[in-house]
């Protein structure tokens, strides 16, 4: 591969958006703080790898309103934390009035299906070798998590217990993250607390390998870098994290795929 050629990788960032769909904006009960706490803030910046990889997809719409990392069959009221949610991960009610089936179908058809169609196109019709589904995680488990209140690692990488890619990939990726970020190996966990969300589980090895990456928000949403009133992070911190993630993915690709 030529040095200036982009890598045959897909990067998916499904939870980085913070916007509300026009279809529901007049029915939203939440503050922007509630939405901010529910999404993966600044992940579209941290995982901006478009100068390195051939394919990158993301959305401007907050996961609060349409969660691309859920099955389209996970609907309320049976699942309040599905593709269409009724509460945030901190158990805040999202809407004044429950959404009717027409609006639910509109949201799925307008935002969810095109995202997954794009994944399908890139994975099946392009010469893509591997994909990463990229997220951030709260410093401690939120109310709707499997580990509420428990501290999280600095990174969690996952493959659904070996089902979405070989375990050797995660072993190599863990070493590379530790080296590039100068972290201890114990700061990077595998399949704990996350084994992989719907995107990685559904598309993993279908037909290409997928890895889910979670970065701890305490690496940038802290008093040193984060203005909590303005909801802004110092640009130099985001630039640093983005540079490191570019190095991680580049080193991983050449180590595993040559």
Structure description:
The chain is an alpha/beta fold. It has one domain (7-256): 3-Layer(aba) Sandwich (Aminopeptidase). 31% of the residues lie in helices and 15% in strands. It has helices at residues 32-38, 43-46, 101-125, 167-181, 198-203, 235-256, and strands at 7-13, 53-58, 130-137, 155-158, 188-190, 210-216, 226-227, 232-233. The strands form 2 sheets. The protein has a 6-stranded mixed β-sheet with strand order 2-1-3-6-4-5, with helices on both faces. A two-stranded antiparallel sheet has the order 7-8. A hairpin with a 4-residue loop joins strand 7 and strand 8. Helix 4 (167-181) crosses helix 6. The longest helix is centred in the middle third of the chain and has 25 residues, at 101-125.
Strand content: 15-25%
Helix content range: 25-40%
Corresponding CATH superfamily: Zn-dependent exopeptidases
CATH topology: Aminopeptidase
Architecture, CATH level 2?
A: 3-Layer(aba) Sandwich
- How many runs of DSSP E, i.e. beta strands? 8
Helical run tally: 6
- Which series of helices and strands comes N to C? EHHEHEEHEHEEEH
State the domain count: 1
Q: Please mark out the parts with pLDDT under 50 across 5 or more consecutive residues, or reply none.
A: none
**Radius of gyration, Cα only, in angstroms?**
18 Å
Mean pLDDT: 96
Q: Cα distance, first to last residue?
A: 9 Å
CATH class: Alpha Beta
Q: Per the principal axes of the C-alpha atoms, what is the gross shape?
A: globular
By secondary-structure content and strand pairing, the structural class works out as: alpha/beta
Please describe the biggest sheet, giving its number of strands, its sense, and whether it closes into a barrel: 6 strands, mixed
Widest β-sheet, arrangement of strands: 2-1-3-6-4-5
């Amino acid at each position: 591969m030529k040095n200036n050629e982009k890598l045959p990788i897909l990067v998916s960032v499904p939870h980085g958006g913070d916007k509300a769909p026009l279809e529901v904006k007049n029915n939203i009960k939440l503050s922007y703080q509630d939405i901010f706490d529910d999404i993966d803030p600044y992940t579209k910046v941290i995982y901006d790898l478009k100068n390195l990889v051939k394919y990158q997809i993301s959305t401007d719409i907050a996961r609060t309103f349409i969660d691309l990392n859920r099955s389209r069959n996970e609907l309320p009221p049976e699942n309040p934390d599905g593709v269409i949610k009724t509460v945030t991960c901190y158990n805040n009610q999202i809407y004044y009035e429950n959404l009717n089936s027409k609006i639910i179908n509109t949201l799925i058809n307008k935002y969810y299906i095109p995202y997954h169609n794009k994944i399908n196109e890139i994975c099946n019709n392009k010469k893509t070798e591997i994909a990463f589904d990229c997220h951030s995680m709260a410093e401690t488990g939120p109310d709707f998590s499997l580990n509420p209140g428990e501290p999280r690692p600095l990174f969690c990488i996952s493959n659904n217990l070996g089902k979405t890619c070989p375990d050797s990939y995660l072993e190599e990726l863990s070493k590379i993250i530790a080296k590039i970020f100068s972290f201890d190996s114990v700061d990077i966990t595998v399949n704990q607390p996350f084994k992989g969300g719907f995107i990685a589980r559904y598309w993993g090895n279908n037909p290409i390998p997928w890895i889910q990456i979670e970065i701890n928000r305490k690496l940038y949403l802290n008093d040193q870098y984060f203005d909590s009133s303005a909801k802004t992070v110092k640009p130099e911190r985001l630039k640093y994290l983005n540079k490191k993630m570019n190095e991680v993915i580049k080193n991983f690709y050449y180590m595993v795929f040559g």
